[in-house]
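Key result, reporting period 2: structure in, sequence out.
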């Protein structure tokens, strides 16, 4: 367990703080997480909607599922945890956010340096020519096809069994190599290779602060652990630190 004053001390004494977020950071924005009792994967098998094989088997079904999700994500409002991270960056107290989320809420809250490991709701890409387009080109005629080559369009997200974009992953590892304080928020720490990030940071001497409503495998290496909803914790932090 941690105290807010210890968190504030770490925040003000560190030279390069980075945040690493998962779906829990957006839970209080009304976006369901993946695992846990009410998680997305309790309702639908990830093999069906979050693998290339599942998509190729039934692209219309997968697209219907994603269009529903896109609607929820795009309509979601930022919560105080997103706002606090953006404020910390503006004050020079946070250098980057590495996120596993595709929802774009960190950017919506005003964060500038956001590394999206698992892609984005904002884009789609062609399976044939690889070109990317804004998701707004997807109409109700499913499955959508590429305006350039007629190939099948898919969401620009990373599914199971697919490598993370090399440039993005390298950028994240660069940030991890520089950080002396990693704030881990709302991730179960179970999906590789993203889940390696806290361990890599710890290995090179960074302090780890974890904020999660549950303990996770990362809790064992955390210097401070706050077991509470992140928007509540960040409100306390920002008020006590007078930021
Ligand atoms: C709160 C809160 C509140 C709630 N406040 N907290 C060993 C080594 C390497 C790979 C593997 C391996 N074993 C298996 C693999 C493969 C696989 C993997 O890791 N599987 C595990 C599940 C076992 N990984 C992959 O396939 C990855 N690719 C890969 O490894 O490629 C290798 C390769 C190389 C070369 C060629 C080919 C391949 C890709 C992973 C892609 C993950 N994609 C998804 C979907 C994205 C698109 C979409 O959104 O539609 O990404 S799955 C899903 O999980 C999503 C998330 O980003 C990701 C992580 O989930 P997250 O964010 O942690 O959410 P939850 O639900 O798990 O946790 C939420 C947490 O919040 C909980 O702890 C709550 O308590 C907490 N919480 N409310 C604070 N208010």
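The corresponding designed sequence is given below.
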């Amino acid at each position: 367990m941690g105290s807010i004053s210890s968190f504030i001390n770490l925040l003000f004494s560190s030279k390069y703080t980075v945040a690493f977020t998962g779906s829990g950071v957006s839970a209080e924005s009304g976006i369901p997480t993946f695992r846990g009792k009410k998680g997305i994967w309790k309702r639908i098998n990830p093999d069906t909607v979050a693998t290339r094989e599942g998509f190729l088997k039934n692209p219309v079904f997968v697209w219907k599922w994603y269009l529903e999700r896109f609607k929820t994500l795009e309509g979601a409002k930022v919560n105080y945890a997103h706002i606090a991270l953006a404020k910390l960056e503006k004050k020079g107290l946070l250098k980057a956010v590495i996120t596993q989320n595709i929802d774009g809420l960190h950017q919506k809250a005003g964060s500038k340096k956001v590394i999206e490991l698992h892609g984005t709701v904002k884009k789609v890409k062609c399976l044939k020519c690889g070109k990317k387009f804004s998701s707004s080109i997807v109409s109700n005629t499913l499955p959508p096809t590429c305006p350039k080559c007629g190939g099948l369009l898919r969401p620009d997200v990373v599914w199971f069994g697919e490598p993370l974009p090399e440039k993005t992953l390298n950028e994240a590892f660069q940030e991890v190599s520089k950080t002396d304080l990693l704030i881990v928020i709302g991730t179960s720490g179970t999906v590789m290779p993203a889940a390696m990030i806290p361990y890599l940071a710890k290995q090179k001497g960074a302090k780890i602060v974890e904020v999660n409503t549950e303990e996770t495998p990362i809790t064992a290496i955390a210097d401070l652990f706050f077991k509470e909803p992140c928007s509540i914790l960040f409100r306390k932090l920002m008020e006590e630190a007078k930021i």
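The chain has a mean pLDDT of 97. The first strand starts at residue 17 and ends at 21. This case is discussed further under Risks and Mitigation.
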